[in-house]
Specification:
52% of the residues lie in helices and 19% in strands. It is built from 19 helices and 17 strands. Bound molecules: adenosine-5'-diphosphate. Its main location: membrane.
Length: 630
Amino acid sequence: MSSLFGQANGDDPKVPPARRMPRSNMKDRIARLRYVTLVFLSGCVALGLVTWLCLELGLEAVGAESLYLIVIVLVSLLDSFAVSALLSLISVFCLDFFFIKPIFKFQMQFKDDMPALITFLIASLAVTALVRHIRKLGEAQSEQDLLLDLTHDTVIVRDMIGEITYWNRGAEELYGWTKRDAVGKNIHDFLRTRFPLPLVDITDTLVRTGRWDGELIHTKRDGTEVIVASRWSLQRDANGKPHATLESGNDITARRRAEELLKQSQATSLAEAQKLSRTGSFGWDVASGEVFWSEESFRIFEYDPGVHATVDLIIQRVHPDDRARMRRLIDFVTDTRQDFDVEHRLLMPDGSTKHLHVVARAASDESGDLRFVGAIMDVTATKQAEQQLHEAQTELARVTRVTTLGELSASIAHEVGQPLSAIVTNGEACLRWLGRETPQLDEVQSCVTSIISEGRRAGEIVHRIRTLAKRDTPAKMPLDLSDVINDVVILTQREVLNHQVALRLKLATGLPPLLGDRVQLQQVIINLVMNGLQSMNANGNAPRELTIESRQDDDGHLVVEVQDTGTGIEPENSKRLFDAFFSTKPNGMGIGLSICRSIIEAHGGRMRASNNAGRGATFQCSLPPLQDAA
Ligand code: ADP
């Protein structure tokens, strides 16, 4: 490579095959010997001819010397120094024999003729060595040109004023200009180079470090542009002075375009994915207050993408009921530099509500300023689905309650029938007391008081039944667990009697209140009582006992337990009891326990079932007291 910059070195790879024989190769050695012999013989013939010509023309020794020298130079162009040296020696003998007196004898005047012959010999050897050196330089240069032409990369050499001095075949192929077109031109004008940095900066780096690489845009002969990955190296002369720059480069236009396309398609896919998943992304630079939104984020907030996003703009959209909470959150996370994960609502200009789930990670930029990056998920559809599911569950629970009431109808009829017959009996007695000659008004008063009290009792039962059957939205209020159990006992006591079951109540007094929906909790206990009664249907002579207990456990939870002496739970069913539609009863729907569990969990509690040590099973619900629930 260095010979491109005016020096030649290295071996002689471009010598014809016959002349660079590896010693090991016998065939090549013979061919080489043959060639050298041929050249030598040709040289001898040429010397003979020159001698004959000189004798014919009657030339003196000086004339013959010149012609011999020409022959020697020509032969040295063809072969090695050894052949030329040998021919020089032969020429000396020929000069002595044919041209130095006495002629045709190998005799001479040492003093007069010897210096001339030695001068001739030295001159011929020097010329031969020089010719050989020049020839080798040329061959090395051609060899390097050939090698540089083999590479697909462009290799261009320019001097310090930018004039092209070398242009390889790769450059010809890429740019469409031949070596002849290019050499001598100013490279940057010729290729209309566009630099990634100011040229002075690039030159500065090149001079300082001896190298530069970067991407350049060049214009080809046909006017199209190419992006070239270019590597520059500075060449210095023996004194360290820069004297040329070698630029090698390769065409990366296709790669860059493919990358560009990939980038575009990734950006498009990302935008598309955000759109499909209704998830936008954002960045928030706390120090400057700048907020960066993806296209989808603008869509979620229903702001024009041209709008300059700020925290205030976001707060404007936040639902008024969530605004104070969001402000507190923003203050908190900016103070503590914490990640956050929050759900809040937006109130849109058309009055609709959107539910968002926002997750963000706190990070610091190079200068330590706080930034948040995160995702905004529009979960409105999920929330609506959850709401619908909740409504469906509430309705299912109501329907189940009504079904249970159907099962309790005999007991209910009895409960309502008893006060009614008492009312009738009291009414008749009233009439009798009034029909006396002297109406017994104090008796009448006592009967009417009784009628009113029985009427109230019947009214209360009807009210309870109506409440259970009503389509009310769940409403939580402070409740006494034992009160709720008592309500259930009134509604189910007849059913208990019908099943010939002994009911035992172990109700704690003075329990702390819990926060709950009365109707829903009644429903849970009714369900557990009815299941307990049914489990004892096949008890035969075995005792039929149902115990309902309320208490506060060691953790402070309020517990209601319904224990029976029925069949107990089959071990293989224990894991599925609370699954919807699991039933072992011929006409069972299998949703009672699943509703019970969802009601208890909605109250922040837990439900479990286990077999008793003796007969039967115990179902237990534990609920947090009002204090904890709040
Ligand atoms: P269903 O009463 O319609 O079967 P539930 O969800 O109330 O639906 O009960 C599911 C199943 O749990 C019952 O079929 C029964 O196998 C079992 N199970 C419920 N309560 C008891 C109990 N007290 N004793 C034994 N098994 C019970």
